[in-house]
Amino acid sequence: MTERLGPHEPVAPLAAVEDVEVRGHIIDSLILPKVLDGITAAGGEFRIKDIAVGHDRADPSYARIEVRAADAASLESIISQISDHGAVPVHGGDARLVDADMDGAFPEGFYSTTNQRTEVRCGGRWLPVGDQEMDCGIVVDADAGAARCLPMSDGERGMRIVVGHVGVRVFPLERQEQGHAFAFMNSAVSTEKPKGIVIREIARQLHANRGGPGKSLLVGGPAIVHTGSGPLVSRLVRQGYIHKLFAGNALATHDIEQALFGTSLGVNLSEGTIVDAGHEHHLRAINRIRRAGSIRAAVESGLLASGIMHDCVRHGVEVHLSGSIRDDGPLPEVVTDALECQRIMRSAVRDVTFCLMIATTLHSVAVGNLLPASVRVVCVDINPSTVIKLNDRGSFQTVGLVTDVEPFLRALVAEVSKLEA
Amino acid sequence: MCPPDHYGVYYVINPWMDIARQADHAAAVAQWQSLRAALVAAGAQVSLVPPVEGLPDMVFTANAALIYRKRAIVSRFRHEQRAGEQPHFRRWLAEHGFEALDPPDGHAFEGAGDALFCGDTLYAGYRQRSDAIGHQKIGTLLGVRVLPLELVSAHFYHLDTCFCPLDAQTAIWFPPALDEYGRRVIRANIANLIEVEEAEARSFACNAAVVGRAVVTNIGCSGLHGRLRAAGFAPVEVPLSEFVKAGGSAKCLTLRLDGEEAAAWRQDDPGGNSENCHDRL
Fold first, then answer.
1. Is the previous residue joined to A330 through a cis bond, with omega within 30 degrees of 0?
2. Nearest CB to A85: which of B132, B147, B185?
3. What does CATH list as the number for A2-87?
4. Residue B183: pLDDT band by 50, 70, 90 thresholds?
């Protein structure tokens, strides 16, 4: 039995979970090993979360055990069986639901979410919380037996909002995601790790996602274009590795400027020379697209014939451009209402399972806020503080790679090509 | 003890019972009287709880309560057929100087039938009639070590049908009535174990009333009696076949008010029950 109390075997992500506790003379009576054996014999798995052994002979001991089973019915059968031996479920009861008394704000004391898998207890049943996102509230539709994360601004009067921590449980990521592909990176920000291995792994994820149900999202900053990496991203788009692109006015503008004038902010990317009146090129590029009505229209009319934006239109990549107060133009597709941008991105990330953030700080943080912790994120930036910012804001699932963008993308394209071969 | 005035097999709550195999009332009365005589001869003083019509199993006083010093945890029966006994036992115990306590809420508990001290430990049978959690809570309430043992056979539905402590280090037992964990627990905790064969276990050999070194059982337990004599005990046999028809025997027909011989607390409690109720059954 001693080995049971030591370090635990990894627990597979079995779907149904319940904590039970057993107290009394559970060690001398072999009740604890019997309960654990009972769980295993019935096809479940356990993890001892807490154990306190009595000091004197007459002192009772205590153990809190997390029980996992493949589905709710198997779990119920295990719980019923081990309850005969004195192991009883522990839960503080149902979550407290309070009707929202106004639009756009939650009741005081609302439960504030994390980006980790969460469940709420209603009517004695644990409901999975959908649309997992940090810094939201939880709205429950008791009749439908459904719960989901809800941003404060989307709150409506009369919605039933979870208040307090009772009846809410959160599943830490490390148990759900055993041995993920970047497990060898034991520090989130890596300036000194062998980049080749990480890049190979990113290529593998993109390749695996290409045909699968999970989508790959690129969040990109304008440095992709300034550094001359546009054609590399274009190639990934054309080969079907990028399903969605989130960017700002700048990336699209510089990409289009490059396509129309061969410059990025007036710098000729092939020759590195500053072109006469080149500083006007990006404004002229925006103007042409605005005159065309949209990027898509410019592509369809033949005005825009190359570049990332062109390839995204041609290859059906879902693009969302968020505006900012420093934007020129902006391009017609740019959404300038920040809350609307959040809503669009929130809805677009639902099926994303892999996210590559390249050379953009604020956009990375914004998207990081929307992603559940189960989405693997790789953040590539020349500046380590971008990755640190992401981590500090709770996107701890992020793996950071501190490197210049161009050599990174060149290596990534090479790795992807190897996989294709 | 409770006189068998209203005893009979009128319902079926264990595999021994069969309404078609009714107890012979006159024979039952005679057997009960001979048991009482054997206990008195062994040195016991017997107090009687008045029988109640319509409660035939009240004769099995072992299930009235668990006695610990001056406290009595009164039973909460699993079957409603016996629930009517509870208030009568409770009243009697309270009137006789015991602090009558209820078992933990929501848990069945069948008294000394399922909770037996051996040394400083309370061995407690569960699954058939009493609940494991209830036992653990009673252990906490009394401040004693409790080792719950799972009973796996419907024929041995109370712990006292398959396990009987004789002194602080010795017990009679029938291992197949317990699951593997329970057997390991008993072997690890009790130094001297006297095993009973199945045929004798079915004659309720383990359901013995112990007074000093005297061990009173039903007839048909000669193998056990030989082993008891070899171990320095004085076995006594009394025919109790009419009570076996309801699934009980010598031990079931008694409740030791001053603590079982094997209970360690009995030795260190001179100011407690022993003074007032010495050797009373």
1. yes
2. B132
3. 3.30.70.2690
4. very high
